[in-house]
Amino acid sequence: MEDDYEAADKLRGLEHHRGLGDMLRPSTTTASSSSFHMEDLVEDIQTIISSLLPLKEAARTSLVSRSWRMDWRQHPNLCFDATKPRSKDKDCVKRAKFIETVNSVIQQHSGRGLNEFRIKCGLREESSDHIDGWIRFATAAKAKIIGINLWSSRKHKYSGVFGWSRWSLYRFPLDALGAPDGPFIQSLFLSDVSIEPHLDTCGLTKLKRLVLHSVQIVGDIADLLLNCSSLEDLKLIACSGVTALNIPHQLNKLRHLLISHIYVQMICFHVTGLAHFEYKGNVIPIVLHGCSKLEKASVKFKQDDEALDHTFTAIPSISGVKELNMRADMNAYVYYGDWVSQVHTATRPTHMFLNLRLLTCKIRTCTRVPNSHSGLLQLAHCLNSAPQLETLQLHMLYAYVPTHRCDVCWTGEVTGEGASCMGRLGRLRTVHMSGFRATGLRWSCCAASWRRAAPRSSV
């Protein structure tokens, strides 16, 4: 990256002095007959130098040398971002300028050696003809990386918690990715568009990375993934149109799976090579078949009193991880049931985390009365299922909710059960804790127990 900036700085400096063709020269002590011009470089070297520059800087090199006027037209990365720099023009003017710029560049570009093509702009459905043309250019040039992010105007197309308005979203043509002479795309990034996957979707057998963000899926996503036999990284974020992620076929090469804020009833994947799993959303059944190579899991549940319990008891697929990052929102006041019983339920994990070395646990508790939740330390019982734990990071955040119904708040006491489990953590070396609330005496006793078990503890 530093080399790129140096090259750009040198070329910008050349623009301010010397005429066209008056290029880098040796020192004055060298004979004039041996003067060096940039155009003397081999054509391939000139192309490589140009490709290391950002597109805008590469285009400026046409002012430096006649021979470089054509080099930028073979630039391998065409990335257009309307979000920066931000001008004071109206949105309609910005969109018009952006469309004009993109059309001008792709008309002059040779289409050869294109590696990456990205669009990021708040374009609406009426611009679909232009977007279609850009995608045709990218697919004809066989770009390995394609990104279409039509991020703007979400307020115009949002149609509720469960999805987006279908008519207002640009439909990305998946069929355009199928080239007659074989697949070419390796990474696909889509945001704020709609797709219609089907079993006959082709051209995705070389796809290694797929990111869908705020995408409306019309059809079965399993039909799309069926054709992604080389997929290594899959991210599904805030997508709509999906009721269940039940993928019956094998995704053996998948290494990273992220599912975030998708309102589905269950998740089921067959992923024998999965190494990292991330989930953010509601408490739902999650099954990952055959993931014996899973090393890291990150789970963040939305507000649910059984979130902690669910992490340690109801997702057996993650019990073999070495690193677990967990975050949950919990209510310290309960309208139905007894908070005390929920704490004790959460302290009985059903699966052993025998390989777990690093546990990061962040819990946000909604409380009506401050300084009344020292009983949450009983959750340390979950550590009984991780006898090989070496590093523990445990952080609490209390959200104070004032109310006159103080009689329903739980004001449990430290029972000593949390401290008693420390004797089972013989490998624990480092503990970082923050945010806990308790009386001085209770806290001193608990902190002392942690420090005896973990000499490098930080409270």
Automatic annotation (TrEMBL):
Residues 105-401 form the At1g61320/AtMIF1 LRR domain. It comes from the Eukaryota. Residues 39-69 form the F-box domain. Pfam families: F-box, LRR_At1g61320_AtMIF1. SUPFAM superfamilies: F-box domain (SSF81383), RNI-like (SSF52047). This is F-box domain-containing protein. It comes from Urochloa decumbens.
